[in-house]
Amino acid sequence: MAAEIGISASYLNHLERNQRPVTAGILLRLAEAFDIDMKAFASDGGDTAGAEQLGEVFSDPMLSDLGIGRPELIELADNAPAVSEGVVRLYTALRELQRRPLDIDEGETTADPRSLITPETWVRDYIQAQRNHYPELEERCEILGEALNDPLSVSEALRRRLKEAFGVESQVVAPELLAGFSQHYDPQRRTFMISALLRSENRTFGLAYQLALLELAPLLQRMADDARPPDAGTRALLHMSFANYAAGAIMMPYGRFLRAAEEHRYAIDRLCGQFGANVEQIAHRITTLGRSGARGVPFFMLRVDPAGNISKRYAGESFPFSHFGGTCPRWHLHAAFQTPGQTIRQLIETPDGQRFFTISRTIERPIRPDLRDDALLAIGLGCDIRYAPRIAYADGLDLANTPATPVGPACAICPRMECPYRATPPAGRMLAVHENRKTISPFPFLPG
């Protein structure tokens, strides 16, 4: 490594032990030698917990009286990343333990303490640690996807592949036959059934998902083994996540999709038409474009329901919101429900001055068994403002002079003092409530 960046081995040893500063020149050499985006050095999206996640942990009322400042958290995250990761894992497990305390009261034990973290949380954190990109899986899916390229019907090509390579017959069946499932594979009868309630794009995705399970079985198995999930349930969810990722990569092969995304400047509807995918599938796919030497715009993505529950959270680079909670009410993601089908664009600015360009829009659930139920979800996509000129939705905006909406990571850790949308007081701050006057913010507090 020292030879790669043109320094001595002893100097590299000093850098690794924090006995010498990493200069700008060294950073540039690292970026060039190992094809690393410079922002990755400052991002919390890697393998270990960053200062932002530690800030959320130490804002908890149990710890907030310690008064640990951001400089100390940055130092801990930089100098002891494994310790930082351990703190965040323990806190995540504690939150889950508080949610289901009866497990301990009843005397149940677990062989692996990581099982206190929910499967969804474990898988989400693992995916983010990989930056939502799997190089080997991408390569295999690209070869397969290009071989199945059919300008008229991707689903027909997928159906033929299942039949010819694996003897699997694909059928669209009445939902009553599936008893609550949207799709089902019967390995004994070699039959794959898809609910008639699914829209065409979701049927195509289902075919690609089943093909991935059969065609890429050894690779998916090895990837799950390498991840070392704590229990069988988490492993099954991770394996399904890999197969879902592969389905999107088969439908939208990396090289062809990246070229189209750049050519059409990430216009989602244009990409939907070209690849026979829906809005959510396209949105998810553009968060995965992290191939070394061929990267796309590093988007983050959230999916929420009308009640504010977050069901998907991905980030190709940095993520400006809370890892443990929800989003800032000043971000227009939830406003998308008021204007179904329309794309809302917004510039936002975090407390540290970083600015993001975001778009929000509603989508429909892939399946709705009861027509009385609400069919809408909302997705939000965003990226650092420096990438905005590459995005069609930013056209017409004066990116340099348009005011950005000030947002925060979550109310409990947001330092903004005069926010009228604040839902909770900030942790570890003294309230400044006065009986003779009321402030715009419902929870005024003293500066830290």
Largest sheet: 6 strands, mixed
- The CATH class name of the largest domain reads Mainly Alpha
Proportion of strand residues: 5-15%
> Roughly how many Å is the radius of gyration?
24 Å
- Tally of individual domains: 4
Note the total helix count.
16
Tell me how many strands there are.
11
Helix/strand/pairing category: alpha+beta
Q: Which sequence of strands runs across the widest sheet?
A: 7-6-10-9-8-11
First and last CA, distance: 43 Å
Shape designation: globular
Unreliable residue runs:
102-112
- From the 3D structure, determine the CATH topology of the largest domain: Arc Repressor Mutant, subunit A
Fraction of residues in H or I helices: 25-40%
What is the CATH architecture annotation of the largest domain?
A: Orthogonal Bundle
Order of helices and strands: HHHHHHHHHHEEEHHHHHHEEEEEEEE
Keywords for this entry:
HTH_RamB, 39% helix, Short-chain fatty acyl-CoA regulator family protein, six-stranded mixed beta sheet, three-stranded mixed beta sheet, IrrE_HExxH, Beta-Lactamase, Cro/C1-type_HTH, 16 helices, globular, Arc Repressor Mutant, subunit A, alpha+beta, 448 residues
